[in-house]
Amino acid sequence: MHPILELSSVSKRYGAKQALDQVSFKAGPGRIIGLLGSNGSGKTTLMKVASGLIEPASGIVRICGEPVGMQSKAMTAFMPDKPLTEPWMRVQDAISFFTDFYADFDTAKAKEMISFMQLNGRDKISSLSKGMNERLQLTLTLSRNARLYLLDEPIGGVDPVAREKILDAIVQYYNEESCLIITTHLVSDIERIFDEVAFIKNGKLAMHEEVDQIRMTYGKSVVDMFKEVYAE
């Protein structure tokens, strides 16, 4: 069995900045993984490399054993920190657009999630609050039958009520044969759903550990471990 995502010695530089530095990382099915780090640590770059949006300078990236390319992109659903929709659309237009665009889009699941998220299909996207827009973006991403889901700051800037709804939806609707990787700086709000966490610091993988192992071995919560790793 191949891992869902495998990075081998992946590096990426932007000018003078080393965004990723020899990162090796594996992620298996049935796991929700927190990809954590301070701003500029390399989290979003890793996501974009895994999704095939940017190419690494060196190293190998595979999705389910396939090198990143057309075939791997069909197995990967990426929710960037910018909306995937156009402001003129209504919620139902966004569902139709994704149904047409992605062969693996599950319209029935999307409609069920729209109801769970308390969204209205007739609402214009331009009229949605930030929290409601985040709910829509998550619905569109998780309604694809992908193997790898990449969520970049899915709860950034939304109120605590919307945050809980989004986390509940992630747990309820993600496909357990897949792997879900989430970047966030709101560690205390979201650590309850993580099976594993990976800490990125200055482009390097500082730690990749199961959450239960962190609690058992170090006697710390993920938040406390995060503070320790990034205080140095």
Brief characterization of the structure:
With 232 residues, the chain is α/β, with parallel strands linked by helices. The protein has helices at 43-51, 70-73, 91-101, 107-116, 130-142, 160-173, 187-190, 211-218, 222-231; strands spanning 5-14, 17-27, 31-36, 58-63, 66-67, 76-79, 148-152, 179-184, 196-201, 204-210.
Overview of the structural elements:
It is a single chain. By secondary structure, the protein is α/β, with parallel strands linked by helices. The protein has a single domain, classed as P-loop containing nucleotide triphosphate hydrolases (Rossmann fold, 3-Layer(aba) Sandwich), CATH 3.40.50. It is built from nine helices and ten strands. The protein has helices at residues 43-51, 70-73, 91-101, 107-116, 130-142, 160-173, 187-190, 211-218, 222-231; strands spanning 5-14, 17-27, 31-36, 58-63, 66-67, 76-79, 148-152, 179-184, 196-201, 204-210. Strands 6-7-8-3-9-10 form a six-stranded mixed sheet, with helices on both faces. α5 runs parallel beside α6. The termini are far apart.
List the helices and strands and how they pair.
Blueprint (H helix, E strand, L loop, with lengths): L4 E10 L2 E11 L3 E6 L6 H9 L6 E6 L2 E2 L2 H4 L2 E4 L11 H11 L5 H10 L13 H13 L5 E5 L7 H14 L5 E6 L2 H4 L5 E6 L2 E7 H8 L3 H10 L1
Parallel strand pairs: 3-8, 3-9, 6-7, 7-8
Antiparallel strand pairs: 1-2, 1-4, 4-5, 9-10
